[in-house]
Amino acid sequence: MIESLLIANRGEIACRVIRTARKLGIRTVAVYSDADASALHVRQADEAVHIGPSPARESYLVGEKIIAAARASGAEAIHPGYGFLSENADFAQAVLDAGLVWVGPKPGSIRAMGLKDAAKKLMQDAGVPTTPGYLGDDQSPQRLKAEADAIGYPVLIKAVAGGGGKGMRKVDAAEDFADALASCQREASASFGNDVVLIEKYILSPRHIEVQVFGDSHGNAVHLFERDCSLQRRHQKVIEEAPAPGMDEATREAVCSAAVRAAQAVDYEGAGTIEFIADGSEGLRADRVWFMEMNTRLQVEHPVTEEITGVDLVEWQLRVASGEPLPKSQEELSIDGWAMEARLYAEDPATGFLPSTGRLDLLEFPDDALRIETGVEQGDAVSPFYDPMVAKLVSRGKDRDDAMLALADGLAGLRIWPVKTNAAFLLACLGDADFRSGAVHTGLIGDRGDTLTQAPPAGENEWQLAAMRLFSPTFDAGEAPLAGPWAKDFGFRLNAPAAIRMTIQQGSERRVMMLEQCVNATGFAAPADGGVLVWRDAQPFLFTPPRFDAGAAAAGSGAILSPMPGKIIAVEVTEGDTVAKGQKLLTLEAMKMEHTLTAPFDGTVAELSATPGAQVQVEALLARIEPAE
Questions:
Q1: Is 501 a catalytic residue?
Q2: Dist. CA 152–CA 307, nearest whole Å
Q3: Pair 255, 391 in one domain
Q4: Are 261 and 408 contained in the same domain?
Q5: Is the Cβ–Cβ distance between 322 and 1 less than 8 Å?
Q6: For residue 566, what is the domain's CATH number?
Q7: Which of 86, 94, 304, 310 has the most CB atoms in a 10 Å sphere around its CB?
Q8: Which of 201, 233, 262 represents a domain boundary (last residue)?
């Protein structure tokens, strides 16, 4: 068995490999860039080596630095994780040439599957069904269009060196082909340095089915059944599951056996994934599932396979790389239960899924009902330099409904702030009627338009709960803090109204809340940013006292009103003073916090009724600013 291992990656996959290596008693070495100096994978490894500046092209993608780090640390082997250099045949060969153990397939196997056209020809020779299409040497626009016309529209143009959705265009009609081809070739050339394309028949109800395969150096090859990764957004996987819904035993046997033949065709060693595209218009059928490509590495979604088979795939990788035979034969492998994985990203669905970076001031995952694969902890930062994945949430159940419910409950229980995430989007996907029924296809999210990404507004319950928590930070949602003899006289005080009014704000909306009506509010709330966070359906809402420093005064007239009952502790101006927008006017103490009220625009203090030490009620006029001419 390997005794020391360098992980040539970062984030959650590095942490995942470290966990298994520690279980096997293997010493681990992490590598890190400037941005990752204090990252979780660095903290967890036995040793860590700095490999360069933050951009991946200057650190994680520089093979020479990785190999030098392995030599300097005394590491015996290199595990590439996924992404970065994991499918780089030249790097794999360089690792071997350096006298190190490569935890992955042989460089020749990587090369054989690296180009889509060559891989497709290889699969055809191995008897693996492939999608109808053209992958010839004649790349002239005239020949390519003629082939597309013969296949019949719609067709898909794909860069042979592509991946991640790049260098791919769907063409619906013959008159659109020329422009789509030129666009695809430009993108392929810029992204991969190779503008060669192939043409495939576009499947109208496509399902993405992939099979986990594993080979060793003793000639053994097995499959660990299939995964369904059909729920995608712009060719990026969103939620994966195993096994595939609607997969009967005959189709499973045909597809998985084809996957093993594919692995054997390239003398495969280690973990790999054979990806298929299926026409799901009439359910999954063996004669409508075709080879698409092979990923010669561990996959992001490998945990769902582990959950239904009870196999640690990273352990298998390390054992095979150490020269051991596969731990189990095909007959010893079986499916037990159902598993789902959701990819939690630091991104904002409401703004087109733009990445959201920054410090994770609050990061609380749900309880032990889910398996959490992450590379961050509370207090860590999401870097702008790398993939913005926060975590993978993996559920397991006795059947699909059970796993789906567990994943939905887990997503609803996430607490993350202030970094924005796609948690509410994931929960909305799980709630989609077609997804729930198993009628999922790769175009489902696109077909829904904005329905899955629109952030819902805060409801009445959230407003009530926020008001109670802002007034009483120790209030627990769902309890009855006013039960007993004082319930009738909620808010009782001498010479004051019995009911307490409180103005609070969420986004641009502002409301006056009657606290006596809020005691039945339920949900989860936590303090943050001078206010309170309330969650519903994985969506956080920040409520604060009214903020008059955002450019608009109360009532739109320059009136500065008290946002809540409190005490004036400082007044910074006098009547007649000239003030600038954002200038501090006075400070109000309420709910054991200080609240600064500022000028909404440039102007003059025309009226000032606030005095230090005075107790004021909600919406009491404290000052009035006249705008400058």
A1: no
A2: 41
A3: yes
A4: yes
A5: yes
A6: 2.40.50.100
A7: 304
A8: 201
- Tokens (6 digits) for 350: 């409401």
Do 7 and 15 meet the contact criterion of CB atoms below 8 Å apart? no
Residue 73 lies in a domain: yes
DSSP for 167-193, written as a single string:
EEEEE-SGGGHHHHHHHHHHHHHHHHS
Is 393 a member of any domain?
A: yes
| 115: in domain | no
Q: Which of 114, 237, 117, 231 is nearest to 165 (CA)?
A: 237
Q: Verify that 193 and 214 share a domain, yes or no.
A: no
Closest CA to 380 of 51, 55, 37, 57: 37
Same domain, 289 and 430: yes
One of 10, 16, 27, 297 is an active-site residue; which one? 297
Provide the pLDDT for residue 170: 93
Question: CB neighbours of 595 closer than 8 A, spacing ≥ 6?
Answer: 530, 545, 563, 566, 587, 588, 589
- Are 358 and 304 within 8 A, CB to CB? no
Taking a C-beta distance cutoff of 8 angstroms, is the pair 588, 503 a contact? no
**Same-domain pairing of 427 and 467:** no
What 3-state DSSP class applies to 419?
coil
DSSP reduced 3-state for 218: coil
What pLDDT score was predicted for residue 475? 60
Report the alpha-carbon distance of residue 448 to residue 422 in Å, rounded. 16
Could you say which of 509, 544, 579 is where a domain stops? 544
Judge whether 13 lies within some domain: yes
Domain count along the chain: 5
Q: Which two tokens stand for residue 271?
A: 């973990």
- The Cα-based distances of 153 to 165, 197, 202, 224, 292 in angstroms read 20, 17, 7, 35, 19
- Residue 404 and residue 355 share a domain: yes
Query: Six-digit token pair at 200?
Result: 């495939």
Domain CATH number, residue 79: 3.40.50.20
CATH code, domain with 191: 3.30.1490.20
The C-alpha atoms of residue 476 and residue 28 are separated, in whole angstroms, by: 44
Distance, C-alpha 386 to centroid of its chain? 12
At 562 the pLDDT is 83
Q: For residues 280 and 278, what is the distance between their CA atoms, to the nearest angstrom?
A: 6
Q: Find residue 169's DSSP bridge partners.
A: 157
What does the pLDDT look like over 118-129, one tens digit per residue?
Answer: 888 889 899 999
What's the confidence (pLDDT) of residue 312? 98
> pLDDT tens for residues 201-246?
888 889 999 999 999 999 999 999 999 999 999 889 999 999 999 9
> Measured in whole angstroms, how far is the alpha carbon of residue 590 from the centre of its chain?
38
367 — phi, psi (to 5°)?
-65, -170
Based on the domain organization, do 374 and 306 belong to the same domain?
Answer: yes
How far from the centroid of its chain's Cα atoms is residue 438's Cα? 22
Torsions phi, psi for 164 (to 5 deg)? 65, 25
Contacts of 144 (CB under 8 A, 6+ apart): 134, 138, 157, 177, 181, 197, 199
- What pLDDT does 549 receive? 46
Shared domain for 372 and 418, answered yes or no, is yes
3-class state of residue 571 by DSSP:
strand
3-state secondary structure of 120: helix
* Parts of the chain with a pLDDT under 70: 163-164, 473-499, 547-557, 590-593
